[in-house]
Amino acid sequence: MIVLGIDPGLANTGWGIVDYEYNKFNCISYGVIETEKDLDCHDRVSFIADKIKHLTDKFTISDFSIEDIFFAKNEISAMNVAKVIGSIFYVAYLTDIRVFTYTPLQIKMSITGTGRADKHQVQEMTRILLKLDKIPKPDHCADALAAAVSHVNINSTLKKFNIFERRINA
Predict the structure, then answer these.
(1) pTM, whole model, 2 decimals?
(2) Active-site residue flag, 38
(3) Active-site position among 34, 40, 43, 67
């Protein structure tokens, strides 16, 4: 299973590709899609979607795992992130790749075993699970990799209990 984890954002969208086979994780690649502030919102969202589509062309992705909006202090920022998520759903539709979304709480729980873990604890545990020398930088990369690992962990647990994969459609 090859999962593309995504930490969506209008200015910076983190992505991380994780392979999970024979109960072992392998970090394939990760990075950040940065958009220019002077571009219109629709151009920025389209740019992000194009880059995600490029990743699906380059790698054989089975699932998208997206960190969902859980709580937003800034409504404008939340709406822009929602637009980015929507564009990724559209790429998933075009490429016939399954999409799963997880709240930050679900990601924390599946990576560390507690919903009270701080950002550094989640990143460090992700680093350990992926056998990386250091926590990926910037944080958006580490968060995207955590989303990918979380997807594997949650679905592996569901399969152990003969529960079908959960799929959330926005």
Answers:
(1) 0.91
(2) no
(3) 67
Mean pLDDT throughout 96-118? Answer: 94
Predicted confidence (pLDDT) per residue in 45-62, tens digit: 999 999 999 999 999 999
Out of 7, 63, 68, 143, the active site residue is 7
Rg, the chain, Cα only: 15
Annotated catalytic residue 120: no
Is 67 an annotated catalytic residue? yes
Quick check: 49 and 91 in contact, CB under 8 A? yes
Domains of the chain and CATH, by start: 2-160 (3.30.420.10)
Burial of 167 (0-12, 13-18, 19+ CB in 10 A): exposed
Whether pLDDT at 165 is above 70: no
| Between 170 and 139, residue with greater pLDDT | 139
Q: Which of 63, 140, 143, 151 is catalytic?
A: 140
What 3-state DSSP class applies to 97? coil
Instruction: Report which of 100, 81, 146, 149 is spatially closest to residue 119, judged by C-alpha positions.
Output: 146
